[in-house]
Amino acid sequence: MISDKYKKNRDTVIIIPAKDEFNNLKKLLKNILTKKIDTIIIDDNSKDKTFSLNKIFNKILILKNKKTLGYDNSIKKGLRYAKKKYSYAITMDADFEHDPKYLYKIIKNLKDGYQIVIGERDRKNRYLESLLSNFIKNFYGINDLFSGYRGIDLNILDKKFLIKKFEMPFIIFNLHNKFKNTKNIKIICKKRIGKSKFGGLFTGNTKILSQFIKIFL
User: Fold this and answer.
1) pLDDT number for residue 44
2) Where exactly are the structural domains of the chain?
3) Cα separation of 109 and 112, whole Å?
4) Is residue 156 within 8 Å of residue 115, measured between CB atoms?
5) What one-character DSSP code corresponds to residue 165?
6) For a disulfide at 92, which of 22, 98, 127, 129, Cβ 3.0-4.6 Å?
7) In a 3-state reduction of DSSP, which class is residue 163?
8) Which of 185, 177, 190, 199 is nearest to 144 (CA)?
9) Helix/strand/coil percentages in the chain, nearest 5
10) Collapsing DSSP states into helix, strand and coil, what is residue 91?
11) Contacts (Cβ under 8 Å, ≥6 apart) of 183
12) Residue 6: pLDDT above 50?
């Protein structure tokens, strides 16, 4: 028998992009699945046993990329799938920085009518990320545009955004400016386990700057 809490969350799905995250996901999913929320893992052509997690956890869906698509494109693949079946999606990382304890708070705000819910991190991993986030916060009201922990009302997500050339910050920025219905919630990040899949210091900062330029061009 499906619990009432599970029924209430059947219109919501968690999307987690992952590359070689078997050990992290094995621990993370034990926590997430106690919250009775559907979960999709986008396996970005992992070389470890990430894809085998669907044999351990039979209530998750794993979509495996035939070739490496990268962080943002993997999320967008999950969103394209989610739009067919769900009303809301929550994106989060597999490296434990995003604490599952905030999932219900994000869902509540989405169901209260907010179309975008941003998890505003208590710390940023890169100085440039912090600098540009503060600029966007002060002038546009998105407190942490580069946060990967976010909720989205899928009804506002036009498929034209879910193509290769658009990164998630660009999509969120444009949706925020169009609908003006974003909720920022403060979150405390845990310590990341493993290396960032977004990139190291130089690569990560370069990607952030590139995304910032695309937004304002």
Assistant:
1) 97
2) 4-216
3) 5
4) yes
5) T
6) 98
7) coil
8) 185
9) 45, 20, 35
10) strand
11) 109, 114, 116, 117, 118
12) no
Query: Pairing relation of β-strands 12-18 and 88-91?
Result: parallel
* CB < 8 Å & 24+ apart, contacts of 98-105: 98/148, 98/149, 98/187, 98/189, 98/190, 99/187, 99/188, 99/189, 99/190, 100/28, 100/31, 100/32, 100/35, 102/149, 102/185, 102/187, 103/14, 103/32, 103/35, 103/37, 104/35, 105/185
Alpha helix segments (H runs only) across the chain: 4-8, 22-32, 53-56, 71-82, 103-111, 127-140, 168-179, 201-216
Strand order in the sheet with 38-43: 60-64, 38-43, 12-18, 88-91, 150-153, 116-121, 182-187
Q: What pTM was estimated for this model as a whole?
A: 0.91
Handedness of CA 135, 161, 79, 210 (dihedral sign): negative
The two three-digit tokens of residue 90, written as one number: 């929550």
Task: State the DSSP code for 73.
Answer: H
pLDDT in tens, 132-168: 999 999 999 999 999 999 999 999 999 888 987 899 9
Instruction: Please give the structure tokens belonging to residue 36.
Output: 């009775």
Architecture of the domain whose range is 4-216: Alpha-Beta Complex (3.90)
Q: CA-to-CA distance for 12 and 18, rounded, in angstroms? A: 19
